[in-house]
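Section 5: illustrative case.
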């Protein structure tokens, strides 16, 4: 068993979470946190017997409801978590949270970073006939920035013309799981 204790943050379907749950013989996943109560990732975690949390909100001075990142920080520390994996987590972490977890947050992203950060990365790369692939990187204060730990080119730009977007997305998702697994196994 690797000695690190992980929280996995998700927002949607959770195909990458499933890949991480399959590694539980070597990976200590203490909790799965979702930004979205309807995320099917939550069901996957519960079925695997992993505790889940929803991001809590609090009312700020301007009477707006904002994610309570401080609460998340304490919940994770109370559970002994010392590493965070963003597996399809679609919220931007605030800078002070990132600083508190510096060097301990990994993000999976479906592009060859620094190309195509943000949303709809596969579609944008496909439309522009660019190389398509996946990256795992350490998270800094930017969006899909931070030092790249591993990358894989799934499909070269020159091969895109013969493939549909859905076929490409499928191959990217297969590569995402492979790269995640390899990176975590090599992680210090
Ligand atoms: C994955 O393709 C992941 O790389 C991407 O969201 C998808 C989530 O799928 N993440 C980002 O774009 C982060 N910027 P999943 O919920 O099935 O794992």
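Designed sequence:
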């Amino acid at each position: 068993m690797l000695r690190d204790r992980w929280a996995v943050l998700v927002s949607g379907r959770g195909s990458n979470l499933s890949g991480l749950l399959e590694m539980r013989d070597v990976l200590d996943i203490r909790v799965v946190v979702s930004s979205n109560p309807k995320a099917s990732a939550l069901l996957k975690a519960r079925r695997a017997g992993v505790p889940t949390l929803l991001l809590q909100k609090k009312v700020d001075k301007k009477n707006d409801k904002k994610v309570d990142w401080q609460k998340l920080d304490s919940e994770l520390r109370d559970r002994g978590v010392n590493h965070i994996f963003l597996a399809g987590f679609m919220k931007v972490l605030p800078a002070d949270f990132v600083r508190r977890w510096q060097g301990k947050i990994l993000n999976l992203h479906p592009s060859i970073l620094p190309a195509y950060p943000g949303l709809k990365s596969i579609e944008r790369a496909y439309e522009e006939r660019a190389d398509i692939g996946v990256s795992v990187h350490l998270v800094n204060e930017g969006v899909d920035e931070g030092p790249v730990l591993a990358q894989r080119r799934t499909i070269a730009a020159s091969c895109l013309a013969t493939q549909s977007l859905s076929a490409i997305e499928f191959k990217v998702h297969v590569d995402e799981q492979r790269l995640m697994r390899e990176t975590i196994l090599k992680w210090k």
